[in-house]
Design brief:
- With 72 residues, the protein is an all-alpha fold.
- The chain has one domain.
- The protein is 62% helix and 0% strand.
- It is extended.
């Protein structure tokens, strides 16, 4: 598997895009849930995640996210 960060050529442009999207996209909870459900089903179909043990490793992911978010 390739590191997704290596695919980003211009981090500043990506961050600007994310800021613009956050300002302009106003999804309702229901709309966000429909998108999440579709992405989840696609990930299972592609074998990226296993629907039976979706929470395996979640605690490690949360610790990693906390550590990364604390960096400046």
């Amino acid at each position: 598997m390739r590191d997704g960060a290596a695919l980003i050529k211009n981090r500043k442009k990506l961050e600007e895009l994310e800021r613009r999207l956050a300002k302009t996209e106003n999804l309702s909870y229901q709309e966000a849930l429909v998108i999440y459900d579709a992405l989840y089903k696609e990930a299972v179909a592609l074998g990226a995640i296993d629907s039976e043990n979706i929470l395996d490793g979640l605690d490690a992911d949360i610790r990693l996210a906390k550590a990364l978010n604390s960096l400046k």
